[in-house]
């Protein structure tokens, strides 16, 4: 057998009966904020990690997969994204990926938890890479839903980069039909959103498939996709939803062409081949998604692990 | 946080610093055979599981993904597979998937560990589903490499379904250039092999990429691919290697057409869309694979976790 | 570091922040009864173990310490125990120790959970060693408190051998002032009771000290004591309460004399030296016990870990 | 069941098949020194802890038990200890307890690992409480055995406060007959030593009983004793060995009298009752100790967990 060499472990429970174990070197930061337990850990396999309420959010070693997968399919599907809104996005890496696009003129990031953002600014420099100082970027510490309800601004792209909907956490009202309808209203005419949508593991497809069906009640184009993020311990799903543009209409060459036109540098995870491949889901996932009838609503929210 | 509800756990160490935790109900079977520690566990998330030397081999809930992904890409890429050889294949599920193909006339499975096969026969009926009794199937308990060295028989398809190459385990000499050359010699003119090739996680691509490069020193066509098998705790890789036929030349429709022609029933994981999608690897995986220079040889074997 | 060699573990949580880990070989038996989750595990360090609601009850390797420590201080303090009552006692080992005493004429064991007793009878023969077949023994499957309320029988010794008072468990009303008063009424004039009373660890003395003070509101003689039971993971406490006889009045020689007179064979853990030594508690334990003001009542019960 | 509320754990493996789990808040300090891995952790149940090579050494909550149990039985058994030598003693708490004695004129502490001592000085102020600055104290960073071989100084008391003898660790040559003979030669005529001697758990008495028998080949008086230190996860043993004075000759009153004469303040764990009680060992421990024939020698050392 493989013999464990660590005696300090972070146990990331994926459900009450399953978890992923990370040997840890040290606890860089730990604090209970008004909204959640935030921790920054140095792990042996994945380097520095952000953990919220005991769940891995992103790791030094593979955050590039998560953030590139979250941001670029939407950005490159849009012909010329100028105004971008981020719901959540604490680490600043979603901001970083958006700002790579030359077309972007303004990014507004609204995260409810200032303490999380500030601890990320300080302890996760490899994530934000100075993005918070970009003159195109602005950060506000508010309830993103309330902000979107009150503003009349519209955006070309809205990226929803939040943790999973747990009962006591700040995120569950950002996964409902009502919220997606609001987001739709704040999009410009060719607007696109993307979001992480939970695991695509066969054992727990409820969240992913219900988010998919809920988005379909609001958006004409909904494209679920997945990316392998090893530190998450399970295969992971995302969804792109759009008023008009369909990401599956773009082939490898077109994506590669757009990358070379719009960015200064190549990416690490995302290119034309990755773009096209990510929309292929295993047959049983497709079937379960189509069969799903659960619609998530404010009065009927969905909590993971319940 | 998610609160664990189990107090009995199987800890599957993926490396000395990382593991996947499975809450267990019971230990169905446990024995140290001449070759390895074999265990059959009932877990809470994945049902019954086969564990060899402390490593998850396949689970009731998602073994269909592993076995369909291992078997069908090779089988459907071949125009008419009649004779098939399995290296290893203890659970009998690889045999099961092969026997679904009407064209198959004979399958020889050679597994070194009779006690593993017999415990699978007894305790994993959902895996083999009676395949061992199929008149086209034969099982021998021998060193598969030695058998292939001594036989002059040839096969259309050879499936290598073995555990990972650990120092004390029975498998590491089945991952070398010399073994792949031998396998190549035992193929018919359009012959194809496939094998599981370890995780595709960014943190530990050595095995997957070295197997890829080693296969390329022997076979003209080598197609690495991946499948998400949640119970493994990490994204997982496979490789198809072929004398002539290229799996990437087949589109979704052609695969779906062959499935409907050759099988009595549809599959659960694999279809045309799955076939095409599985060969798309993330950019950083492709780059690391191409850069890999390590060739695995009998005198320079590769052990995982060392 | 010490490298763990097991990958199957029973985690015995002693509190939400502390636990004891046991490498397991197999799960011999597992069932949710009407009252509790019962499990019989074979562990690598302590052999076979009984686990109720996830908590170690007794192990093959050191159950003799627990059961001798629970039974004999009371039995040998009494001049001639004839009639004995056991509250709980599922494994049958408390019964076994009582029956060693030649003076004993009748033992009535009342355990609420027939399924626990029957699984112990079947799977823990080294515990009961046939005691259930002794003509002096009788077992009834009832609520012991209700039974004692309704009977008018009296006993020389009452042994309370139950699991810890957890909120959802069957035991918490057997730890109250009202229950101890009832027990007192069912004792003969020189009657003695003994019970396990939770850990004596400095970090969690509430249960032990509150049981002590609660007993003192009912009994004239209360003697707390402790025994080291390695499989419990923490130092463990007991209490003897008595209408008249004081165990601390008996010196080593007198206990050794009584052992040789009353038993056929010597014991493994308990003798005169053990008897005298067990009543010496560390200074800080004594101080905390005396300072404790919590009295456990039916309307104000105490739950461990709450 | 008790539900764990921590997701960061320190796993203290007591053997390859047993461990004690501590929920951790943070890693205060972590370093591989020339001799060992040193870590200072803040745990949820035991506060700050010193961990060497993955093993708990002492915790904020119960270090007073360990250090009072290690130091005072020897100190109070001696009629007037003036010169004291500490082998090891990194945390400075052994020094602290010795310096409480008014009779002490000089304490020399020789610890091989300056980095451990300095990290304790900085991060464990509650342990040393400024003892390193006491004018009677001196610390040298040397191999204590080599130092004792080369010096001709003699001491009234020698306290051996070292970690367990593991194969790769610095301590195993401080557990042999040769070392104890050397220590004996460096004692004044009424000299006494004491040391921690490993667990007294029934499952792993080898170390404790072999240390006892090895000491008996050297010293005329050897008194093994135990103390319950909850954070260690198992009952723990010590030994006092003496040229002349016998600790068991002192009754509770005499110890209490000496405490009030010699110290300015009372202790927390140790008093007359604790002193007398600690020498009572359970019967099976006594028997196994007397039967033990293993003598630990330089050429035949003993390693725990092998």
Automatic annotation (TrEMBL), chains A, B, C, D:
Q: Where does spermidine bind?
A: 67, 91
Q: Which InterPro entries match?
A: PABS (IPR030374), SAM-dependent_MTases_sf (IPR029063), Spermi_synthase (IPR001045), Spermidine_synt_N (IPR035246), Spermidine_synt_N_sf (IPR037163)
Q: In which pathway does it act?
A: Amine and polyamine biosynthesis; spermidine biosynthesis; spermidine from putrescine: step 1/1
The protein's UniProt keywords, in alphabetical order, are: Polyamine biosynthesis, Spermidine biosynthesis, Transferase
All residue ranges annotated as the PABS domain in the record: 7-243
GO molecular function: any one? thermospermine synthase activity
Which GO terms are recorded in the biological process aspect for this UniProt protein? spermidine biosynthetic process
The highest taxon in the source lineage is Bacteria
Residues holding S-methyl-5'-thioadenosine = 36, 111, 143-144, 170
Q: Which EC class, in a word?
A: transferase
Q: Does the keyword Transferase apply?
A: yes
Record NCBIfam families:
MFS_SpdSyn (NF037959), PRK00811.1 (NF002010), speE (TIGR00417)
What does the function comment of this entry state?
Answer: Catalyzes the irreversible transfer of a propylamine group from the amino donor S-adenosylmethioninamine (decarboxy-AdoMet) to putrescine (1,4-diaminobutane) to yield spermidine.
Q: What is this protein called?
A: Polyamine aminopropyltransferase
Q: What is the native source organism of this protein? A: Candidatus Manganitrophus noduliformans
Q: Which gene encodes it?
A: speE
């Amino acid at each position: 057998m493989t013999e464990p060499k660590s005696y300090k472990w972070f146990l990331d429970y994926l459900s009450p009966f399953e978890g992923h174990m990370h040997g840890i070197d040290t606890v860089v930061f730990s604090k209970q904020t008004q909204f959640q337990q935030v921790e920054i850990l140095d792990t042996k396999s994945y380097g520095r990690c952000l953990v919220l309420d005991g769940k891995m959010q992103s790791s030094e070693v593979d955050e590039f997969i998560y953030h590139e997968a979250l941001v670029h399919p939407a950005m490159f599907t849009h012909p010329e994204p100028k105004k971008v809104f981020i719901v959540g996005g604490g680490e600043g890496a979603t901001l970083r990926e958006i700002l790579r696009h030359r077309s972007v003129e303004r990014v507004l990031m609204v995260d409810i938890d200032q303490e999380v953002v500030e601890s990320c600014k300080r302890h996760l420099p490899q994530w934000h890479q100075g993005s918070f100082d970009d003159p195109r970027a602005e950060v506000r510490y508010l309830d993103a839903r309330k902000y979107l309800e009150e503003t009349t601004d519209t955006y070309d792209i809205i990226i929803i980069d939040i943790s999973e909907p747990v009962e006591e956490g700040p995120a569950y009202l950002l996964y409902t039909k009502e919220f997606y309808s609001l987001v739709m209203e704040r999009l410009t005419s060719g607007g696109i959103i993307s979001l992480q949508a939970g695991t695509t593991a066969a054992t727990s497809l409820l969240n992913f498939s219900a988010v998919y069906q809920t988005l379909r009640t609001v958006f004409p184009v909904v494209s679920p996709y997945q990316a392998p993020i090893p530190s998450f311990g399970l295969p992971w799903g995302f969804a792109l939803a759009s008023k008009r543009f369909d990401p599956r209409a773009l082939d490898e060459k077109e994506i590669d062409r757009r990358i070379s036109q719009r960015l200064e540098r190549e990416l690490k995870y995302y290119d034309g081949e990755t773009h096209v491949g990510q929309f292929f889901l295993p047959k049983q996932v497709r079937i379960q998604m189509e069969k799903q009838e659960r619609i998530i609503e404010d009065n009927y929210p969905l909590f993971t692990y319940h």
